[in-house]
Write a structure and sequence with these properties.
With 280 residues, this protein is an all-alpha fold. The chain is 70% helix and 0% strand.
């Protein structure tokens, strides 16, 4: 039985690791390796960074990476701040507008606006072709608010009451007591927000008309998914590497930055994901 489990686990790992290794290997392979292996190289005979050099020499990919980093950093900071404030307010039973606002949050879990109402709202606010169009419509996730609210409600009321008796206001209680005790769940929710902002391409496709403002995921969709050819004007190099190597290099560039964030929140992941879960 243990042997069967080990075999199944090995197969599952191989299904995840082998395609990723092939993507990285193809991006580093020489033209001869790519031609000989039909466009997908698992173990290259030689290694070259020509594809990455060409991409970062041009203006499209570096600019797109910068846009994605900006949107992810600003959006995650704004989302964490607003989510924490709203969740803390809803975790206090006697807070102003507690019940109607809570009903709105729960309703947002059940009903989501369609593409056309969302587009019309963004257009009415004058946010078209603006980076704010990628941040403000998704700044607060109702699901994350509910999770964070449940975690805040588990903090002992005696601790908050003692701080209030010492003269601390709600702002001081939130900043000095509640948030430091909530690092685990905040780390995981921040990761969820960051992954969402980094991977978002559909909102950019809807709201951004200027190609100079495209994030890396929209560049990935254009040049990898839609198979549009990268030319000299996009990568700034007269001697073009194979298109397969360029496409795989874009894919690696779009994956690796957000992948590097996971080790920093891994120790908080289990506790953060189970925050607010039903205990039996």
């Amino acid at each position: 039985m243990k042997f069967l489990k080990a075999v199944l686990l090995t197969l599952c790992c191989a299904l995840v690791v082998v395609p990723f290794v092939g993507i990285v290997s193809t991006s580093l392979a020489t033209r001869e390796d790519i031609v000989r292996n039909g466009g997908f190289v698992l173990i290259p005979d030689g290694v070259t960074f020509a594809a990455y050099r060409a991409l970062f020499t041009g203006g499209v990919v570096p600019r797109a990476v910068g846009v994605s980093v900006l949107i992810t950093a600003a959006g995650t900071a704004l989302s964490l701040t607003t989510t924490a404030l709203l969740a803390y307010g809803l975790s206090r039973p006697r807070s102003f507008g507690h019940r109607p606002i809570l009903l709105l949050v729960v309703g947002a879990l059940l009903f989501t606006p369609g593409i056309i109402p969302g587009y019309l709202t963004v257009d009415a606010l004058g946010l078209l072709d603006s980076y704010w169009a990628l941040i403000l419509p998704v700044a607060i996730s109702a699901f994350n608010v509910v999770i964070l609210r449940a975690f805040f409600m588990e903090i002992p009321a005696e601790l908050i009451e003692s701080a209030r008796m010492d003269g601390a206001g709600d702002g001081q209680i939130l900043v000095r007591i509640v948030l430091p005790l909530s690092r685990a769940v905040l780390s995981v929710i921040g990761l969820f927000y960051a992954v969402g902002y980094w991977n978002a391409f559909f909102t950019a496709l809807l709201y951004l008309n200027d190609t100079a403002k495209w994030p890396i995921q929209l560049v990935l969709r254009t040049y990898v998914v839609n198979q549009q050819q990268l030319g000299v004007d996009q990568i700034g190099s007269g001697d073009l590497p194979p298109q397969e190597a360029l496409q795989m290099a874009i894919l690696v560039i779009s994956i690796v930055p957000i992948l590097l964030v996971y080790p920093f929140v891994q120790r908080h992941f289990t506790k953060g994901v189970l925050a607010g879960a039903v205990k039996g």
